[in-house]
Amino acid sequence: MVGKNCFAIASDRRLGVQLQTIATDFQRISKIHDRLFIGLSGLATDSQTLYQRLVFRHKLYQLREERDMKPETFASLVSALLYEKRFGPYFCQPVIAGLSDEDKPFICTMDSIGAKELAKDFVVAGTAGESLYGACEAMFKPDMEPDELFETVSQALLSSVDRDCLSGWGGHVYIV
Amino acid sequence: MESIQAKQGLVGPNDPIQRTQLPYVTGTSVVALKYKDGILMAADMGGSYGSTIRYKSVERIKPIGKHSLLGASGEISDFQELLRNLDELILYDNMWDDGNSLGPKELHSYLTRVMYNRRNKFDPLWNSLVLGGVKNGQKYLGMVSMIGVNFEDSHVATGFGNHLARPILRDEWHENLSYEDGVKLLEKCMRVLLYRDRSAVNKLQIAKITEEGTTISQPYALKTFWGFTAFQNPTAGAEGSW
Amino acid sequence: MTKQHPAWSPYDNNGGTCVAIAGADYCVTAADTRMSTGYSILSRDYSKIIKLADKCVMASSGFQADVKALQKLLAARHLIYQHQHNKQMSCPAMGQLLSNTLYYKRFFPYYSFNVLGGLDNEGKGCVYTYDAVGSYERVGYSSQGSGSTLIMPFLDNQLKSPSPLLLPAQDAVTPLSEAEAVDLVKTCFASATERDIYTGDKLEIVVLNKDGIHREYMELRKD
């Protein structure tokens, strides 16, 4: 979710195989660099594989360019990697959030074959997607300061995962 | 002496019963609207056998009783069977000779139940019906689908009409349409349907119902113009593989 | 390739969203007035809320023909009840009747998603929420239909009802005033309409309280 010169990215902590919970402290959100995060919901092996490939590609980029990737560039990279597997996709939906050099927030989500969805306000993904849409649509305000953004995102996340059997066990919230 | 066959028709007691048929001869859209003095309804006279236009003089709008008009799209024979049932209903209602008669509201409600009960038997009447009428100064216009979905509105259209005609009606319809403007509006809808619905034919009837009674027009054709550049070279504006 | 031929289904989904909120001495029931089939809109002004008894209204979404059949059946059963008992059915009684009626068609269900709103025998607001085959529960607030997944978490967040597992049982009615509840319902639908294509056109709100029944409307997005 986007705020004023900041963004928030949040997810729940449950890892499960259908109805069985495997772990309750799962990290779905990973850092690419200090101002760029990615959340990967879906099949955990695919998420981790994709994450490793993304980190690898980002490191190559850093070595060649001697700078960090812009969020927009990174989103295109994720999209391209996903579309490579068009007919045998990674079963995961990414959420990408980053801050540009001018502190302009960028958020984006994709389906499992890399169709980008850019939004100005908020993006959601995963099993509680529809609940999150409802909660965020009702709670979002433009240009929130970090504290208020944290509260809004946390409330939206908690009330949404409570209505989804496959999500829960608390959440991680990152404010950048 | 009645034989088992006579009692049960061609289906024997142990034969599997077959219900869901296919539509054979079908009619396309019906469009209707409320206007100042009553209801106007339009339908073309095509009867399609699959994608072949097999019949060209099918009457798809009929008066029911004194106060109502019924228009149908879908399976023509189902519609005609329904008309026979309704004629009987009106007759039996008339035989009470109590001065009461079924109005459009009652008929619409009745049709709703007929369609819904047939779907419950998994043997639907394959039609979308439009019922319009005027009784005691009250205009009435409603629709029923093959599975019983029903509603009232100030303008309705079945099939393709819901996609092509209703947007025009939403734009241009108003409560105080005169008869002339109403007919013009319906003709505009029917012309769009004629251009874009392949099973439409250029021979239609427009029916009017008011407090005074029902009139159904003689079949007539619309003036058409096929010289639009978009018709002559439809792919001109479309870039890409097509 | 086999030849294509027309097929039919005895069910359709005509969409729509319903919400009900119970307060200490009132009940707010609301639904949008759009009726759709697939990607087309059939009507922009179809009321999904009916009055079943003096202190009981039902809002229903799902398959319109089934909903209509259900409404007619309940109206008929209520008429018989009035003849036999010379009084209006209470909301809890209607709640049980609706459940039984839905379960009666367990193996060819009414494809309808209902919320029942009203006042109980003490004049307190009550809301019953159902699935298509008659499972039901008395709650403080509920939402059903195509936009329910968008609205429900927001209601949870705003109304935080006590867990039904608490002992002794806690009152489920919401702490809001009547005007606040009406405002909340409006907010819910404004949000749901943004994301659910089956919700829109107009919102119909029915408020039940000790003064009787009162209807109001709010315009929603039409696209």
TrEMBL record, chain A:
Name of this chain's protein: Proteasome subunit beta
Location of this chain's protein in the cell: Nucleus
Subunit organization: Component of the 20S core complex of the 26S proteasome. The 26S proteasome is composed of a core protease (CP), known as the 20S proteasome, capped at one or both ends by the 19S regulatory particle (RP/PA700). The 20S proteasome core is composed of 28 subunits that are arranged in four stacked rings, resulting in a barrel-shaped structure. The two end rings are each formed by seven alpha subunits, and the two central rings are each formed by seven beta subunits. The catalytic chamber with the active sites is on the inside of the barrel.
A GO CC term attached to the entry: proteasome core complex, beta-subunit complex
SUPFAM superfamilies associated with the record: N-terminal nucleophile aminohydrolases (Ntn hydrolases)
Main location per the UniProt record: nucleus
Keyword Cytoplasm tagged: yes
Gene3D superfamilies in the cross-refs: Glutamine Phosphoribosylpyrophosphate, subunit 1, domain 1
Automatic annotation (TrEMBL), chain B:
Compartments reported by the entry: Cytoplasm; Nucleus
CC per GO annotation: cytoplasm; nucleus; proteasome core complex, beta-subunit complex
InterPro entries for this protein: Ntn_hydrolases_N, Proteasome_alpha, Proteasome_beta4, Proteasome_bsu_CS, Proteasome_sua/b, Proteasome_suB-type
Alphabetic keyword roster: Cytoplasm, Nucleus, Proteasome
GO terms for biological process, alphabetical: proteolysis involved in protein catabolic process
Keyword ATP-binding recorded: no
Function: Non-catalytic component of the proteasome.
Similarity section: Belongs to the peptidase T1B family.
Quaternary structure and partners: Component of the 20S core complex of the 26S proteasome. The 26S proteasome is composed of a core protease (CP), known as the 20S proteasome, capped at one or both ends by the 19S regulatory particle (RP/PA700). The 20S proteasome core is composed of 28 subunits that are arranged in four stacked rings, resulting in a barrel-shaped structure. The two end rings are each formed by seven alpha subunits, and the two central rings are each formed by seven beta subunits. The catalytic chamber with the active sites is on the inside of the barrel.
Protein name as annotated: Proteasome subunit beta
UniProt organism field: Citrus x changshan-huyou
TrEMBL record, chain C:
Main location: cytoplasm
Keyword Magnesium carried by entry: no
UniProt keywords, alphabetically: Cytoplasm, Nucleus, Proteasome
Family annotation (InterPro entries): Ntn_hydrolases_N, Proteasome_bsu_CS, Proteasome_sua/b, Proteasome_suB-type
Signal peptide: none
Subcellular localization(s) per the UniProt record: Cytoplasm; Nucleus
GO cellular component, as recorded: cytoplasm; nucleus; proteasome core complex
Keyword Cytoplasm among UniProt keywords: yes
GO biological process: one example: proteolysis involved in protein catabolic process
Pfam family, one: Proteasome
SUBUNIT field: Component of the 20S core complex of the 26S proteasome. The 26S proteasome is composed of a core protease (CP), known as the 20S proteasome, capped at one or both ends by the 19S regulatory particle (RP/PA700). The 20S proteasome core is composed of 28 subunits that are arranged in four stacked rings, resulting in a barrel-shaped structure. The two end rings are each formed by seven alpha subunits, and the two central rings are each formed by seven beta subunits. The catalytic chamber with the active sites is on the inside of the barrel.
Function per UniProt: Component of the proteasome, a multicatalytic proteinase complex which is characterized by its ability to cleave peptides with Arg, Phe, Tyr, Leu, and Glu adjacent to the leaving group at neutral or slightly basic pH. The proteasome has an ATP-dependent proteolytic activity. Non-catalytic component of the proteasome, a multicatalytic proteinase complex which is characterized by its ability to cleave peptides with Arg, Phe, Tyr, Leu, and Glu adjacent to the leaving group at neutral or slightly basic pH. The proteasome has an ATP-dependent proteolytic activity.
Family: Belongs to the peptidase T1B family.
Name of the protein in its database record: Proteasome subunit beta
Lineage, uppermost ranks: Eukaryota, Viridiplantae, Streptophyta, Embryophyta, Tracheophyta
